[in-house]
Write a structure and sequence with these properties.
single chain; alpha+beta; 3-stranded antiparallel sheet; 6 helices; 12% strand; globular
């Protein structure tokens, strides 16, 4: 891959959602801000360890905001940042494309096997 391709906006966006669960997390947070337990319920296939790791990475990338409320026990709420919401819109367009044209891509992959 050329250096120009590595630095293009598309590749930057792909790196931001790299990881099995990041798109699922972004989609859930796009519906509403959530506490950790609610996110875990919404994505039952993900382990707690993986959810925590993916949330930390999304937060480090500036896509997710973590707000801690001074209660006992502490209340922590995750929400999308402005950057995260914008990326969520773009990911939604890709999902729509996949739903519309994915069958032809899937058929070609099966034929290649």
């Amino acid at each position: 891959m050329t250096n120009a391709m590595e630095n293009c906006g598309f590749m930057t966006a792909l790196r931001a959602i790299e990881g099995k669960w990041k798109v699922d997390i972004l989609c859930e947070l796009g519906k509403a801000a959530r506490r950790f337990g609610r996110l875990r319920q919404a994505i039952p296939e993900i382990s707690e360890k993986m959810l925590a790791q993916q949330l930390r990475e999304l937060e480090a990338d500036g896509l997710v905001s973590r707000t801690t409320y001074p209660e006992t026990p502490p209340k922590v709420v995750y929400s999308l940042t402005k950057r995260g919401a914008a990326l969520n819109v773009a990911a939604g367009a890709l999902c729509q494309w996949g739903e519309e044209f994915g069958d032809t891509v899937d058929a070609r992959a099966v034929a290649a096997e």
